[in-house]
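for the record, two folds in this file. i put them one after another cuz i was lazy. first one right below, seq on top, structure tokens after. the second one comes after a little note so u can tell where it starts
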Amino acid sequence: MKKLALAFFVLQIGFGFAQTTWYEINTGTTKKLNTINFPTNLVGYIGGNDSLLLKSIDGGETWNELTYSGVTFYPGDEHILNLKFVTENIGYMTTGPYGGAYKTLDGGTTWTQLSTISLCFNEGLFFLDEQNGFIGGSACFEGEKIDKMTAGVIATTNINSSTNTADNRIVDIDFLDTDFGLAASYSGYILRTTDGGNNWDTIPAGLASGVSLTSVALINDTLAYAGYDTPDGSGFGILVTEDAGLTWSMDINWATFYYPDYLCLHEAGSGTIYSGAFSTGSNTGLIFELESLTTFNFTAVDQPINDMSSYADTVVFGVGDNGYLVVNQPLANLGLNGDEIDFNLSVYPNPVSESIHVMSDSHQAEYAFMIFDVSGAIVLQGVTSDRKINVESLPAGIFLIQLMDGLDSGKARFVKF
């Protein structure tokens, strides 16, 4: 099930190198995966083509397709383009591109369409919390548009010079704080705000005609990166700004002879910056890494990497075409908080109604335990000396147990009915 990706490295003055192995995870689908988001260490979501929505409740080890309601898909636009969850249950979704923007309060089971003001095409999302955020796209017969949600109320924002082409929609939005933000447009323009997204300046990224922006990531108050997609596979270095988005140029430290298209950007909690990419000439996917702005490497993988997400600072995922999902470390060896697992653990009976018995290859006299629900919340904890734990008080559902014998731990999943 796990497939190792072969690592390649590019020689650049002043940069070090560190090998990364990416492990493939079975998603049970061959549909294109467009977006991935982990609001907690346990709960993650993947959106794809043909209305596909996947959910994981065990930190990405296993994924199940969700049956959901409330979303209207139009013929030819039956795709989930973007997902942003602010908690394990509350999230936002864009569909289409000629679709809509939706909100869920119950972990993706039911969705309610948002009443966007100016948008006809939807894609870019950024949310600070449930009540405050941004939805980007374009108007039906105009160019870039961004709607802002403030305290749950949606209003349109002012863009000083949109491109007046409906295809030129906003595809990605990022904010450094409540004031300073950047947005990327298919038109090849960067939109910049310093007043909390009420007003946006339109800034050329210096790309050739026909080259579309795909993503943007703000790193600090001066540094940001932007990805792009060329029609002829001639990418040579990611776009970078060092003056807070006012001017942009190619960062040749990222340049390789793969000449890739940079499809997405993600900054993990550790500070490492990732970009998912695709080389048209070599017909291979790529994952770029820039660690602490000093150590650079890239890895060839089997599919284009369309989006990336992470949890616990260092557990990083990428999704791609044909149901492709990879992670940068073996998840079976990780605990519920992203820490390394030290011993094997299983439980019986499973499913259970009253009490579970735990079995492990650790032989301590006493164990501490924690049981987590699908949101990652601790619902039961204590100490056991006979390896028997009463779970009768838990509601029906799926749970994870972590057993600890001092410094070591194991984990297992069980179903309560």
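(here's the note) second protein begins now
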Amino acid sequence: MTYLSLENINKIYPGSVQAVFDFSLEVEEGDFIVLVGPSGCGKSTVLRMIAGLEGITSGNMFLRRDWINDLAPSDREMAMVFQDYALYGNMTVYQNIGFSLKVRGDPAQEIHERVMRISEVVELREYLNRFPKALSGGQRQRVAMGRSLAKHARILLMDEPLSNLDAQLRQQTRRELALLHHTFKSTTVYVTHDQTEAMTLATKIVVMNEGRIQQIGAPYEIYHSPANIFTASFIGMPPINLIHGYVEGNTFTGLDNDKKPVMHCMLPQDIAVTDIVMGLRPENIRILQPGEQKANDEHLFSATVENLELLGAEYNASLNVGGYMITGRIPAREEIRPGQRLEAVFNINRAHLFDEKTGLRLGAELT
């Protein structure tokens, strides 16, 4: 049964400024939903409308079949974790975690048992007598998450909770979040602009841009079957290569920025649209070893290595193809150097084709 349902939600601010357009989403119990998109795309506005902190201009919202458009935030049985933690500085960790239970009037023994259990899960047992100012950023965020988990909320709402943390701590806290969700099975709606957080945490991703949903799907689907150019370019690091060109018969001609041909390749099926964009994930590009032959479903091209970013076992390689730059994620090999001319291939069956005019994906993958 659908746990939380948003049906054709719109948000218009004074001055006819529309932040969210016709937003519809079905959330199942236990889902970890991630709203992802660039700054200003409307994702935090959606979260605040779910929480009841923003009014809905039009549309309907249901929680377990109950209409909640006008329900006060305190009556929605939801807990929210903010970007800035929002902890009570004059309370200890113990008091912060148990505060909502105390306000609700729960018995002291039940509060104590709940706080002790939650503090164990979020690894804060030894910090229960400390005040927030004596904690690191990651510890404060765990206190905020612990406080929300202690509340017995139906839905946990998180608004960019990791954005204030450094890269290493963000990665560690991301793992902890995933473990917490696995432990408590809390229905969660999470907002971020970081596509890595979306891919690693979500059971379902909602990609947004300019107030509109671009695609909803599982992380694998979003990455491997992007619905449009925006989703393909926003999800993935390094970003997908987008080569603009045209189709004649079943031959794709890729163009550089001056509209000069830089690539010709045969497509395995006819395409009805003439002007298209070919998307190549960097990991789909492979460097040929000397004397190695390409496979039947691979397209061969020559390139010059412009730059190499060493990532340990791999390079992000900037390759100049007739004056057009593309990125390949290739195994790090000592013999590859900037300025080197080499032969490379990509699997045409793993390419993504988009209609240049509409930006929409042309059918399924070319298989």
